């Protein structure tokens, strides 16, 4: 591109399921007379103490921001307006502007300047799940929370298909009087369900309708708060009544993403507007790699939201199963990993030797002849491209069933097989993905099977000169006793930026999730009730956003931290069979995959005790991360003096889990406190149940908590003592839990102790 440089974010985006290869700073640069490049920067500044009138209105604050622009253009409206991309006034103090590196360098000398960095582009992290989570019409938490009535969920995504029946306002009351948002759709498209719709793409509030051209935003919105829709299905599969987690909650869409990703400046601008509009819950199914919180636009904006009592739920990312692969690590964010539900869309590979291997596929052709066909593995020639069925790698496969190695671009592999004349595809996992399979809308008869099944199928091919196979399409099957399983793609902890906080926080349904889609995926659905099945932590995040809305409706006085605590301390660590939740290996998932465990909405609605955190409680924690006063100001918008406030270790934050690290004799013994608040019966007694992590000694005092009032607080003390041989056997961490048990409640704090293996 002439006179332009571009370092592009590379992702694969398939039907809303996004897998991030890597993220680099992505900026569109314009050349100024061939000498210096201009790009969008996020600039953080201080509010002027001596000129407080600047903060009285948006116009005054914008005038203050414009004083930071280069002197040569600061007084020129024609030049200034194109330079200023966004101004922030609620969740952050700063702006996004088009600047050259030289101009940013000069800006550093101005009083009130804190920091600036080039805008990043972040990727998206891309029904039966209400029943799987125990949500039933007229019963339990749905009934108790009035299906989320009166709660407003703001979704930051790719837009929305507003005429989908999932966004009907049947049964939904008008929004609360506090709502100040706008609808950028024409006419009467918005209603009591979809109460707001804004478009923040291209560096400004466009005013154009936030139409969903990708499908991702429609899917996530309906997962969080879609209304009841009977007869929902995709390709005739998973037929039933679809509903979001909070079907009578209100929705507001803030379009910030396209197929190319989501720009950081737009994200912060949408968060800023959503807070002013009056949302109660924010849902962001997107994110990038780990950055310090003061350089992370989502972390900064989310802190501004929780200061206003707004709950923030974010996807953990799709970079698993590698450790330290998380997005959205800040402790004031609920970080959500992905798991399976107990439904599969079964497609079984039947081999010529009668071996059968169950897999999945959303596309279930009724006219596929189950006659045995020649079976081939293109990778047998040693060509990696052929093994992966990469575009242009296959030829002369007429009438054959083709085995393709899994990985990125699952549907695209089927397209290549079809182009080469193949009759069907068996997609086999690579070793890293184990038994984690995904139901996709393939373009030809196909099944996705496990790594072990793939080994067996390839062994069969090598055992005979005339291998044959077919695929048996068995439709919707419900009742997997191993559900929920952690998905292989779900990003894992520990947190890079704050290892003293256990992340992810929670897991929820994120594999083969049926939800609204703006267009028909099978070209056969009549009307507007079009659905699709998609996988990713993008799908698990809105499940938790909707559940948070239910809890907010039931407990309007609860803080974001209280809601988060209720979700985490009541989470499940056992599957439907009553054994430990497993991961893609079918062995028990570890704590860095599970976090606190799998969400249980009914229990979360009545947790007994909560671990509360107020926004100011994060300041000593941030000081303990060795952030400077100015860096903490970026996050909190407050003047902070860590030398006066004092710093605390990360694990001292009143978090619902413990993550401790021992690496030297000085850290072998550690002391912490936790404070619990009684939100159960006034007269309650809780006794301690303790499972101590191996290689660690623990003591808790007191061991009995006796409450006589609702909202009464009690503090307990915990001592950890790592054994001298901890980590010497090469085992890097150990797990346990601390549980307070009454006659009605069980409140669990999961524990991980990380050892130095040096």
Q: Your description of this structure?
A:
- About 20% of the residues lie in helices and about 30% in strands.
- It is of the alpha/beta class and about 750 residues long.
- The chain has four domains: about 40-70 and about 80-120, 2-Layer Sandwich (Alpha-Beta Plaits), CATH 3.30.70; about 135-340 and about 495-605, Peptidase S8/S53 domain (Rossmann fold, 3-Layer(aba) Sandwich), CATH 3.40.50; about 345-480, Glucose Oxidase, domain 1, CATH 3.50.30.30; about 610-615 and about 655-755, Sandwich (Immunoglobulin-like).
- The protein has a seven-stranded parallel sheet, with helices on both faces.
- It is globular and about 80 Å long.
- The two termini are about 50 Å apart.
Short description:
The protein has 758 residues and is of the alpha/beta class. The chain has 19 helices and 37 strands.
Label this structure with key terms.
758 residues; alpha/beta; Alpha-Beta Plaits; Rossmann fold; Glucose Oxidase, domain 1; seven-stranded parallel sheet; 19 helices; 37 strands; globular; disordered N terminus
């Amino acid at each position: 591109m002439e006179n332009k440089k571009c370092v592009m974010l590379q992702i694969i985006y398939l039907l809303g399921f996004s897998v991030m290869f890597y993220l680099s700073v992505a900026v569109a640069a314009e050349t100024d007379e061939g000498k210096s490049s201009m790009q969008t920067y996020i600039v953080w500044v201080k509010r002027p103490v001596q000129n407080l009138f600047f903060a009285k209105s948006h116009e005054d604050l914008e005038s203050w921001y414009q004083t930071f622009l280069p002197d040569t253009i600061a007084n020129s409206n024609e030049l200034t307006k194109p330079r200023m991309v966004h101004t922030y006034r609620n969740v952050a103090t700063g702006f996004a502007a088009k600047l050259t590196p030289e101009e940013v360098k000069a800006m550093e000398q101005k009083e009130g300047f804190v920091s600036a960095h080039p805008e990043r582009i972040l990727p998206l992290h891309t029904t039966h799940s209400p029943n799987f989570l125990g949500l039933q019409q007229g019963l339990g938490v749905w009934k108790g929370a009035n299906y989320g009535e009166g709660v407003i969920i703001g979704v930051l995504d790719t837009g929305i298909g507003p005429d989908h029946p999932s966004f009907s306002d049947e049964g939904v009351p008008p929004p609360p009087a506090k709502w100040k948002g706008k609808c950028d759709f024409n006419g009467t498209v918005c209603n009591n369900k979809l109460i707001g719709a804004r478009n923040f793409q291209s560096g400004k509030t466009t005013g154009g309708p936030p139409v969903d051209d990708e499908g991702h935003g429609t899917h996530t919105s309906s997962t969080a708060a879609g209304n009841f829709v009977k007869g929902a299905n995709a390709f005739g599969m998973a037929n039933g009544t679809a509903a979001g987690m909070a079907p009578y909650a209100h929705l507001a869409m803030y379009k910030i993403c396209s197929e190319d990703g989501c720009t950081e400046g737009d994200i912060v601008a949408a968060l800023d507007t959503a807070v002013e509009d009056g949302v109660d819950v924010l849902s962001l199914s997107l994110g990038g790699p780990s950055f310090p919180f003061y350089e992370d636009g989502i972390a900064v904006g989310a802190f501004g939201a929780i200061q206003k009592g707004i709950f923030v739920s974010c996807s953990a990312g799709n970079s698993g199963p590698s450790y330290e692969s998380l997005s959205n690590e800040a402790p004031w964010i609920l970080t959500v990993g992905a798991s399976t539900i107990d439904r599969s869309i079964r497609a079984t590979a039947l081999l010529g030797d009668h071996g059968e291997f169950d897999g999945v596929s959303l596309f279930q052709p009724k006219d596929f002849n189950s006659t045995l066909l020649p079976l081939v593995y293109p990778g047998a020639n040693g060509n990696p491209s052929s093994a992966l069925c990469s575009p242009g790698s296959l030829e002369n496969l007429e009438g054959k069933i083709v085995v393709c190695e899994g990985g990125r671009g699952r549907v695209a592999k089927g397209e290549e097989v079809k182009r080469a004349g193949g009759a069907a595809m068996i997609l086999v996992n690579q070793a890293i993905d184990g038994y984690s399979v995904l139901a996709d809308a393939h373009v030809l008869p196909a099944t996705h099977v496990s790594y072990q099944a793939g080994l067996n199928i390839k062994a069969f091919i090598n055992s005979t000169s005339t291998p044959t196979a077919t695929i048996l399409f068995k439709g919707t099957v419900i009742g997997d006793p191993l559900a929920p399983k952690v998905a292989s793609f779900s990003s894992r902890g520990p947190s890079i930026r704050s290892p003293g906080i256990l992340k992810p926080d929670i897991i929820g349904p994120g594999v083969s999730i049926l939800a609204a889609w703006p267009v028909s995926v099978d070209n056969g659905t009549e009307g507007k009730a079009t659905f699709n099945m998609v996988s990713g932590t993008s799908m698990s995040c809105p499940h938790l956003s909707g559940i948070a809305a239910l809890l907010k409706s039931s407990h309007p006085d609860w803080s974001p931290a209280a809601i988060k605590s209720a979700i985490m301390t009541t989470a499940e660590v056992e599957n439907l069979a009553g054994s430990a939740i497993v991961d893609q290996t079918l062995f028990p998932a570890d704590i860095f995959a599970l976090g606190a465990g799998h969400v249980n909405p009914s229990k979360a609605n009545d947790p007994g005790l909560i671990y509360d955190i107020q926004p100011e409680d994060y300041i000593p924690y941030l000081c303990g991360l060795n952030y400077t006063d100015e860096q903490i100001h970026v996050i909190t918008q407050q003047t902070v003096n860590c030398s006066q406030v004092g710093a605390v270790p990360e694990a001292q934050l009143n978090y619902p889990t413990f993550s401790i690290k021992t690496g030297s004799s000085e850290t072998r013994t550690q002391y912490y406190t936790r404070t619990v608040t009684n939100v159960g019966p006034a007269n309650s007694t809780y006794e301690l149940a303790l499972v101590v992590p191996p290689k660690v000694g623990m003591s808790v005092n007191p061991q009995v908590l006796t409450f006589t009032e609702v909202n009464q607080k009690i503090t307990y003390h915990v001592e950890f003592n790592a054994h001298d041989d901890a980590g010497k056997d090469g085992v890097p961490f150990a797990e346990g839990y601390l549980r307070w048990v009454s006659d009605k409640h069980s409140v669990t704090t999961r524990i991980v102790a990380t050892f130095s293996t040096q």
